[in-house]
Amino acid sequence: MEKPTKLSLDVLGYIADILGADRQHPQDRRITGWSTVDALKRLSLTCKFMFPICRRHLFADIRFSFSSPFQQRTGFSEFLLLHPIIATHYAKSLYLDAGQPFSASDYDLLQIMSDSSSLTSIEISSADWNVLLDRESSAFLSLIQIPTLQHLTLRSVDNFPAAALSLCCALTELALYGINYVAPPNTSSSTDDGMQSPLANVTTLELFHSTDRDKYNNTLATLMNSICRIAFDHLKEVLLEITTRAEFLNCTSS
Q1: Hey, which of 4, 150, 214, 250 has its CA 20 to 30 A from 181?
Q2: pTM, whole model, 2 decimals?
Q3: What are the strands, taking DSSP E only, across 33-172?
């Protein structure tokens, strides 16, 4: 009876990388997602050398989701605080549901990630910036200043301070979904024409309104003005939704 062929560590590592990439960019979300996570967990148990490889993918995406029980989220944050290398070196994508309460452990973890993580993608959802706790808004503003951040998504975050986008020094992709209004920057903080636009590196812009189409939307017009000026000649991909003539005229006159 022939012995089963053993797979080399290079092959196992390649399988882990494929699973990790599939988890980040699934082609079929009905099949991937948790099934991919389960496969990575099983693969990490094959031998001691596979654990650190799989861990890199298992913890690449950290989510503070309202769908998770509060105690479960708090326990996860406390676990990550005991192993800070996960949050600072392995995590690449962060999802924050601002409609949920944050625990003291959550804030401590977010502070660590703001100070020393290498996040490349952040999504913030479900918030009215005007009613956020000061500690929440401060934590979010610290996170978007991470120098490695390339992708920022704001989903249903009304009254977001547009001037804060100037803090995103390496941003290449900006997506605003379900937002009717962003707070314009003060005119006194506008950049001079001779200075580089803070959003000059953005190559992908996506902007879709909320379902309330009767409201005037100032988002695009604000992004085209003053300190938030986007260098449209640098954009390679643009997806915009303009629902009223007034909004269109406001943009074209900017």
Answers
A1: 150
A2: 0.80
A3: 61-64, 93-97, 121-128, 151-158, 160-161
